[in-house]
Amino acid sequence: MGIRPGQIPIPFRLPPTPISGSAYFPQLDVLLTFTGFHDPFHKGLVEQEELLGPILSLLAARSFSKVILIDTPATREITKQTAFEVGERHGSALTEVIKCDFNDPTDYSQILSTLTAIADKVRTEHESARLFVSTASGTPQMHACWLLITASGKLPATLLQVRPPRFVTKERPQISELDLTSEEFPLIRFRQSSVDKEAEPNSATNDATRRVGIVGEHPELKNVIDSVQMVAPYNTPVMITGESGTGKELFATLTHVLSTRGNQPFVAVNCAALPDTLIESILFGHRRGAFSGATTNQMGKFDAANKGTLFLDEVAELPIQSQGKLLRVLQDGMIEPLGSREPHKVNVRIICATNKDLSKMVVRGEFREDLFFRLNVAEIHLIPLRERRVDIPLLALSILDRLNGSLRRAKQLSVNALNRLQSHNWPGNVRELENVIERSTLLCPKTVIDADDLLFQVAPPKPTTFDFLPEPEEGFSLEAYLKSTRKQIILKALDATKGNQSAAARLLGISPQAVNNFLSDLQRES
Fold this sequence. Notes:
The chain is α/β, with parallel strands linked by helices.
């Protein structure tokens, strides 16, 4: 156990001229790190995608005068490859390999004994150097031992944490430093690197967007996020529109998180799933005995969301009667539970969502006009996934990354698979994309999911006009059926054009005189 003195140090690459370290480097920065199974490179979520491992990622972000790689029996070949890549990519840095012979990388006593010996050697050989330790490679036990060695003062080094690029923001850059020897312990410093220099200025919004689970780089998506950021601080109602599966609830959640109510309740209600007879009870609550079966007092969703946000999904499905009561709450903030004669005030911000055109429903009398204008103070429209295809690979890999956390064996997507996903029209949008990837991941036995392995759900064929034709039977009259159909189509055209005969004729592809004759015949028949 421990270090083999005969093998320390093993220089991998030397400076081109024999100049001493103190003369060659005005300030000697020495990095110590174990090597791990993600070094020097590791496979990403895309087939054959080779990503920098933790050590090379760190060296790409900042430079060191010397890199000391600590090798174990399980990482012999990895260390050799890593040392070679460090030499090839960062030739100005000295590379030294320290070989250790402990066989259990989870045994604290072996690791601590080894690191103590290494600390003594490094302190002796690099008295004037600044020492750094990377905790990104190796086992969790190795990371803990690094912490103990540095905190105890045996190795006066600064700990470095390296984050994968997908978790990098301006607030959380690629590298953070933890100096346990500082008088201000714990002193944490963040180093800006090339990865985060291009980060967007509003990191709080970026962080909230990531936590909520919104993924994408399409300009229209960024415009929507900007709109959410602008309306979030106010208490005005927000209407989110878009096709089913575009992520309306995610953006409602983002609006809530970015608002002044972010630490208060967020209550979501699917209006389409509410039974007509229980809508008022669910929204406003009820008192015991208010109706048959009401054996206890029940808090409604408005009370549950008090001081927070109430999200009404599929708001277009509310019956007209319930729409009137919702309007009253929006006007005065007062609710009256069923069976109670004492209304009380609630402080709730309303966010609604629908995949229907409410303005057309207002024209048809299916949605109250006054409620529409009350809810539609700020409208946020989400475009379908097929209109932001550039985001499909990002979304697919994000979904796969989440699913891999619950799989025994991580899966990858081939480039062909990503191309096929990007070319699909996605009538179900992001929700359908999630279903396809989850189904393919669970049912495909291969590690790399190819284009042919993607399991798309076959959509039922859309009905055509001919699917609704009547079945001919005894007494059926073709002439009477065609006459009735002609009448209904012309009436629908006149209704769509608000009685404008010329416009209706253009829609039908007939002459205005034909429409006028039809109306004359209709008047005579009546």
